[in-house]
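Why should sequence recovery work at all? Because a backbone constrains its sequence more than one might expect. Tight turns favour small or flexible residues, buried strands favour hydrophobic ones, and helices have their own preferences. The token representation captures these environments compactly. In the example below, the structure is given first.
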């Protein structure tokens, strides 16, 4: 059954059915992420179910690991965080990236899903967008590890092979760190109930089709108490949500519009209160963001938004880069300055593939100017003069976890009357071109 047919069937899901499904979901189990999107497919087609999959950098920009400065002014003093684990890379001996006959093994760059919208960041100046990325333009690296992905996805983003035993172990580990006993948890998957299944089957039948095999298969695992919900995804990303949210002392501001300084102060409190959950040898505070949101909810002017996360900085530069991308924890506040949810990322790096040589950021920028890049920005790269910053990050593809340089390029035609600029994201693989399998430059990933 084609995506177009699925989309046509879902066009017949009326608002009442969607509302009823949502009520059932809230009462019994949470519907899959892909199911939620499909339920909204009365307005969107299935082909847009999943936008590009990002690893959890959340728009970080190069910044020294030793101290992270306020984008407006340096903050007095330096907060020291203690306490984490280095992800096991499985990399005991460096492998040579060849195909067995001394030819370079070429990496596929395909990613799951298509691009919806574009990746861009608004700021008055690029220096306002910050993070504590351990990589800087002065970092010297000859190679970086590439890993095979351990979770495979269908077109549209639904995982094919969730390991529920591994997911359950991760769920119980997080629960224990929160002081929750196993017997206090109600554990279930997000497989929809029979009533919802029957209604969806009827909608498919109305256009002469049957529900595709595996359409209702569960994809996530949930553990719930009266006030905490832990959701674990197949890639070992876990969301912890409190209802009601966890109140912070009145001296802290941790809301959506809180400033860099306010988020930094709140982070110190959270690091102490949730030391067991963070569980790192040397947690590095990583305040990311600084890109502006347009006014809403009583705001009268655009405002920057910042996010608080930690990663373990106890290793060498390569290990720190891996932790920054794959082993980190995000804390999110709500409109009342309370802790609403936490995301814990524990990417599976057990499938080490090989150490690949990497090009310098200067070489990558040359490729960028030659049109050898990937982007969702609907305009061609305007030229070297508009390249404002670069960072090294990893991206998750269909087959591999691969390092890239992400360039932030000012799009001059999109500058607003109030001076806000838009910086589009353009990606160049950090792996040399001879190790890439037929890259289709200029658009999104193959």
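From this structural description, the recovered sequence reads:
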């Amino acid at each position: 059954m084609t995506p177009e047919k699925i989309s046509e069937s879902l066009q017949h899901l009326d608002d009442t059915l969607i509302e009823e499904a949502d009520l059932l979901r809230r009462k019994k189990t949470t519907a899959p992420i892909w199911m939620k999107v499909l339920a909204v497919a009365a307005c969107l087609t299935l082909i847009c179910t999943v936008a590009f999959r990002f690893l959890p950098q959340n728009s970080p920009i190069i910044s020294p690991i030793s101290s992270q400065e306020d984008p407006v002014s340096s903050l007095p003093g330096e907060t020291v965080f203690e306490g984490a684990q280095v992800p096991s890379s499985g990399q005991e001996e460096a492998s040579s990236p060849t195909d067995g006959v001394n030819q370079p093994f070429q990496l596929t760059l395909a990613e799951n899903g298509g691009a919806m919208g574009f990746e861009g960041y608004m700021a008055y100046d690029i220096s306002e967008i910050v993070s504590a990325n351990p990589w800087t333009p002065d970092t010297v690296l000859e190679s970086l590890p590439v890993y095979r992905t351990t979770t495979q996805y269908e077109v549209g983003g639904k995982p094919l092979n969730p390991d529920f035993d591994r997911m359950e172990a991760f769920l119980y580990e997080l629960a224990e760190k929160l002081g929750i006993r196993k017997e206090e948890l109600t554990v279930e998957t997000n497989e929809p109930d029979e009533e919802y299944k029957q209604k969806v089957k009827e909608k498919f039948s109305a256009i002469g089709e049957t529900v595709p095999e595996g359409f209702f298969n569960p994809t996530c695992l949930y553990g719930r108490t009266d006030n905490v919900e832990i959701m674990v995804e197949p890639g070992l990303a876990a969301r912890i949500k409190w209802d009601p949210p966890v109140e912070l002392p009145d001296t802290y501001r941790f809301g959506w519009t809180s400033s860099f300084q306010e988020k930094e102060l709140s982070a110190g409190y959270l690091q102490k209160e949730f030391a067991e959950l963070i569980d790192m040898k040397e947690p590095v505070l990583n305040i990311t963001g600084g890109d502006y949101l347009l006014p809403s909810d009583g705001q009268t002017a655009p405002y920057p938004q910042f996010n608080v996360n930690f990663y373990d900085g106890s290793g060498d530069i390569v290990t720190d880069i891996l932790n920054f991308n794959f082993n980190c924890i995000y804390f999110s506040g709500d409109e009342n300055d309370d802790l609403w949810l936490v995301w814990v990322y524990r990417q599976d790096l057990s499938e080490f593939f090989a150490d690949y040589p990497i090009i310098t950021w200067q070489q990558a920028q040359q490729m960028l100017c030659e049109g050898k890049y990937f982007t969702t920005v609907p305009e061609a790269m305007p030229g070297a003069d508009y390249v404002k910053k670069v960072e090294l990050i990893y991206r998750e593809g269909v087959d591999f976890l691969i390092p890239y340089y992400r360039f932030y390029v000012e799009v001059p035609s999109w500058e607003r009357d109030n001076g806000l600029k838009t910086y589009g994201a353009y990606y160049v693989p950090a792996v040399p071109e001879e190790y890439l399998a037929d890259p289709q430059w200029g658009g999104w990933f193959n």
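A few observations help interpret the result. The first strand starts at residue 120 and ends at 123.
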